[in-house]
User: Fold this.
Amino acid sequence: MLIIGYVGIGQVDLNSYKYIIIPKTLGEFEKQNQYLTSTLLKHEFVQNGFTVVYEDALPEDLLLRTCLGLTAMLKDDSSMFRTKISIVLEDCQGRAVYSTLEGSSTEKEYPKAYKEAIQAAMESFTTFDYSYSEKDKVAEPITLNFKNDVKNLASDISASLDSSSKCNSFSC
Assistant:
């Protein structure tokens, strides 16, 4: 049985992020990819059109510009009888950018319960028409060179004095 609850954090443009980064160890799990949660998350995001990478296999452009990616985190609000999962996408500064609806399962076996809950939470992404579009590039810094801008002051001053001796403020 699946139950879906509360949705996200405001309006966000996921199209301005190139990657979804999946940690090998999610949430409060002690082991890497426990209950196949990391693998399942990667698969689900790929199915929804996202470019997904694991945190230990980042491409060069993401290494150079970490803010190109959002890190997927699991928020586990499970109780004794129900597995409840939300997927939170955090930006490079650790701020929550988007949170899914809560996916829920009453399955007793943990691998099946987490699979059902994650798949239910991922339903929030089916409404997105994701297509990465690079933010406006920041213009390259402009370097000004004043090397030849200073003229010979002595000749400029003498020329100025010659013209001022011939003219005053009332007549020339």
